[in-house]
Amino acid sequence: MNLKQLVIASRNPHKIQEMQQILQPLGIEVLSTQDFAELEEVVEDKETLQGNALKKARYVASETGLPALSDDTGLEVEALDGAPGVYSARYAGKNASYQDNVDKLLVELKNATTRKAQFRTVVALVNGAEEFTFEGVCKGEIITEKRGSGGFGYDPVFRPDGYEKTFAELDSETKNKISHRGRAIQKFVEFLG
Q1: pTM (2 decimals)?
Q2: Of 4-18, 97-111, 133-147, 174-188, which range is least confident?
Q3: Catalytic hit among 72, 81, 100, 103
Q4: Domain CATH number, residue 91
Q5: How many structural domains does the chain have?
Q6: Is residue 109 scored above 80 in pLDDT?
Q7: Regarding predicted confidence, which is higher, 98 or 2?
Q8: Catalytic annotation on 171?
Q9: Which residues contact 172 (CB under 8 A, 6 or more apart)?
């Protein structure tokens, strides 16, 4: 598939920057929903990451007439039976901050016997009538206190397997190579060939 332009279906500046860094070498002009003031916020009300990713990408593709790339990510914690999962961004409530979500997670895991967790991302590409999804997973664990100032979301408490540092302590190049989003985007890049 030969793409000249692509709209990232997100208003999250951290997510947009991360995707632009990964996609920049492909020579694709990367836009985002911030470039289209008329686009409405898409309510993520599906029961799965794939459902939310496809919903956002379909909307942006239909409104802009351009191929749209969207993702939805969930943190799945073993001791919480896979929660917060699809509700990761609003784990501590509808208008919760990253800090609120992390604080709630640490309280819930206070007496947990396992701290194993994984981030899972589903990336959806909608290009006209064509729809494709790509999944990336990064396994690790939730540490007991926040470390690092980089990244966003749960990054200060998530330590990927094989690393001593949290996502928030890793440089962006390393994080993009091993992260759930990086792995899903890499599958997308390989698909583009």
Answers
A1: 0.89
A2: 4-18
A3: 72
A4: 3.90.950.10
A5: 1
A6: yes
A7: 98
A8: no
A9: 18, 21, 150
